[in-house]
Amino acid sequence: MNFQGSRRRGEDGIAVVIDFLLSNARLVLGVGGAAILGIATLAVKRLIERTGRAANDEKVEQKMADSWEELSLVSASPTLIRKGIEGVVMKHVSKAAKQQKADLCQQPEISSSDVQSKPETKSKKLPLCVLSLQERLQQFYHTRAALAPQEVQRAQSLALDICSEIQAFLHIRHPDMPLGEMSLGGSLLDDLQVVSADHACLLVPLQLEDSLWRLIPGEETLLTHPLHWMVRRINLEYFPRGRSYWDRYLVGGYLSAEAVVNMFSKAVMETINWPSISSTLDCLVRPVLGGPDLRLEIRPGNERGSPGSSDQPLFITMLPLLRECDVVLTAEPELTSPWVNAWHLSLYPWETQRLAQLDAADDGSRRHILKILKGVCRLNPALRPLQAAVLANLILHLSDSEGDWSETSLDVRFQQCITELIGYLEQGALHSYFKPAVNLLSGLSEDQVDQMGFMLYCAVTEPEILFI
């Protein structure tokens, strides 16, 4: 390529190099190399913007020095440096930048008379309104992350109506089934749901006799998994099988979570007259069959067009659970498969309670940042595999080392969360705050990690790309 000529031709030459490198980055360098190249490209872009308005060599040198400092981000990843990618990127960027500097130095100086001869042109330019990161975060929170109160109230009302119908049906058809009071739970109740109120959780507590059942921690079971607990039937020599209602769902001496879910699927999902309930609630209610969970889909019926109504479906999940003190075990076969007897230890109540306690103690904005991160990940396809538990634990770990979580430091904490998350992805591990033996990133594939790493690396220098 020929980079000789005017300043405009120099800019075009750099553009050609950058376009060529970006279009072939993933093929030649891989996803990790493409991430580094993306950061370097953003730095060169800023270099061009800064040096393009310089009037003398001293300003050119100073502006270029400031811009090259931004390229220190390229060396932020030890893993990628070991792969030898940094040298490839810096070689192409350095060549393009040197030519840009040479072209700028060859420009003729602009006289003051030339500037004064075009007052109309200058007056026509309007100042650009550029939001700071702090303002952009607040804007994203209020327009995308936070939900309208009427939308939340409508979803909660529908979920509670369904809850009442299911509980009344079970009392009539299965009066001997020992169940506690069903209630609404999850992110919709805790004001942690983002983008849209499209899912809710109905908690169905099972009542067990203390003298007949024992909850065994996951570390003490044969599975040795800290989140996979088991519920053992005890005192069989004094109280034989049949004394407890739940004995009919025993598998190998343990209460089977899978058997309990199958029972509710037949007793509720496949038995209740959903068309009748749909008519009563003035909306379309139907079970989502074939999946591992107990899920209902609710769509607006005759209420279409009423205030606060929406065509967005609401999914309600029934969640059988066991409670003992502060321990909550849920029947979720999709999380404990292939072990039919295992129950899942839910850390969600502990994480939510801890975040609320920390914010109450210092008037912090941890939950505020969590909702922003959840909104960003939900709306960005590359970051969508990051679950809420990962983001909550990220903030909990960061809270141990950072004390300022006020609204004024929202932008600093947000950028720090992005940097910390990159480090956890490089290590391939983010340990649970309450169960360090649990790696919350173990379910991600290598390709998913690469895609998320690429997006987050670019967001270090240009966080606005996360809000597009």
Automatic annotation (TrEMBL):
<keyword id="KW-0812">Transmembrane</keyword>
<keyword id="KW-0547">Nucleotide-binding</keyword>
<dbReference type="InterPro" id="IPR024810">
    <property type="entry name" value="MAB21L/cGLR"/>
</dbReference>
<dbReference type="GO" id="GO:0090141">
    <property type="term" value="P:positive regulation of mitochondrial fission"/>
</dbReference>
<protein>
    <recommendedName>
        <fullName>Mitochondrial elongation factor 1</fullName>
    </recommendedName>
</protein>
<dbReference type="GO" id="GO:0000166">
    <property type="term" value="F:nucleotide binding"/>
</dbReference>
<dbReference type="GO" id="GO:0005741">
    <property type="term" value="C:mitochondrial outer membrane"/>
</dbReference>
<keyword id="KW-1000">Mitochondrion outer membrane</keyword>
<feature type="domain" description="Mab-21-like HhH/H2TH-like">
    <location>
        <begin position="366"/>
        <end position="452"/>
    </location>
</feature>
<dbReference type="Pfam" id="PF21297">
    <property type="entry name" value="MID51-like_C"/>
</dbReference>
<keyword id="KW-0496">Mitochondrion</keyword>
<keyword id="KW-1133">Transmembrane helix</keyword>
<dbReference type="InterPro" id="IPR049097">
    <property type="entry name" value="MID51-like_C"/>
</dbReference>
<dbReference type="InterPro" id="IPR045909">
    <property type="entry name" value="MID49/MID51"/>
</dbReference>
<dbReference type="Pfam" id="PF20266">
    <property type="entry name" value="Mab-21_C"/>
</dbReference>
<dbReference type="InterPro" id="IPR046906">
    <property type="entry name" value="Mab-21_HhH/H2TH-like"/>
</dbReference>
<dbReference type="GO" id="GO:0007005">
    <property type="term" value="P:mitochondrion organization"/>
</dbReference>
<feature type="transmembrane region" description="Helical">
    <location>
        <begin position="27"/>
        <end position="44"/>
    </location>
</feature>
<keyword id="KW-0597">Phosphoprotein</keyword>
<keyword id="KW-0472">Membrane</keyword>
<feature type="domain" description="Mitochondrial dynamics protein MID51-like C-terminal">
    <location>
        <begin position="151"/>
        <end position="350"/>
    </location>
</feature>
